[in-house]
Amino acid sequence: MHFGRVQRSRNFWQHTHAMPAAFYSASTGIDPVDNVIKKVLHNGYCHHIERLMILGNFMLLCEIDPNSVYRWFMELFIDAYDWVMVPNVYGMSQFADGGSITTKPYISSSHYVRKMSNYSQGSWCEIWDALYWRFIDKHRAFFLQNPRMAVMVSQCDRLGSKLTAHLDAAERYLEILHY
C-alpha cells in the first residue's frame, strides 16, 4: 500500500500537459489510438497490450502529465481500481516512477505497432515516428545509460536530416494536440 502512494507521486519525465480533448473524442488523428479509444468509449475496456503499447505509449510520447493519464484511465475503464491503474500508469505505461518496476520505458516506433497488429502503414506512422524520435533525442542522456535503449540513441544519431524533419513534425503535432 505504501509503495503505491509513493509511486503515484512521481513524475520522472516532468511532463505537465493536461489530457487533450482528442483523447476523449477519439480524434487524435492517429488510427491505432483513435480505434482503441473508440473501443474504450464503447466497452469501458481494452486489452492490456492496447493499454500499454498503444494508449500509454502514445500518451508518454505526447508528454501528458501522468496524473492526467491516471485520471483518464480511472474515468473510462471498467476495471479502474488503484491496484490496477497505479502500477499500470505510473510504473509501466508512463515510466513516471523512473523504473521502480520496469527496466525501460514502454515506448516504440510505429514499426512495433504495425508488427504486432493489423494496422497498415499510413500517415499516422509519420507522426508516431516523429514523436518517438523526438522523445529519444530529448532524453538521450537517460537512454544512453540504459543498455536496452542505448542503441536507439545511435540509430537516432544516424538519422541525419531525417531527425530534423521528425523533430519539426513532432512539434507541429504536439502544438495542435495540446492547444
Q: What does this protein look like?
A:
There is one protein chain. 64% of the residues lie in helices and 0% in strands. It has helices at 2-8, 22-25, 31-43, 48-61, 66-76, 82-93, 110-115, 123-138, 140-144, 150-157, 161-178. The chain folds into two domains: 2-93, DNA Cyclobutane Dipyrimidine Photolyase, subunit A, domain 3 (Orthogonal Bundle), CATH 1.10.579; 110-178. It has 179 residues and is mostly helical. The longest helix is centred in the last third of the chain and has 18 residues, at 161-178. 32% of the residues are buried. The model has no long low-confidence stretch (mean pLDDT 94). The protein contains eleven helices and no strands. It is globular.
Summary?
Helix content is 64%, strand content 0%.
Q: Span between N and C termini? A: 37 Å
Shape: globular
**CATH-scheme architecture of the largest domain:** Orthogonal Bundle
Q: Radius of gyration over alpha carbons? A: 16 Å
Q: H/E element string?
A: HHHHHHHHHHH
* Fraction in beta strands: under 5%
Low-confidence stretches: none
Mean pLDDT metric? 94
Structural class: mainly alpha
Number of helices: 11
Count of domain modules: 2
CATH class of the largest domain: Mainly Alpha
Strand tally is 0
* Helix amount: 55-70%
- The CATH topology label of the largest domain is DNA Cyclobutane Dipyrimidine Photolyase, subunit A, domain 3
Major sheet characteristics = none
CATH superfamily of the largest domain: DNA Cyclobutane Dipyrimidine Photolyase, subunit A, domain 3
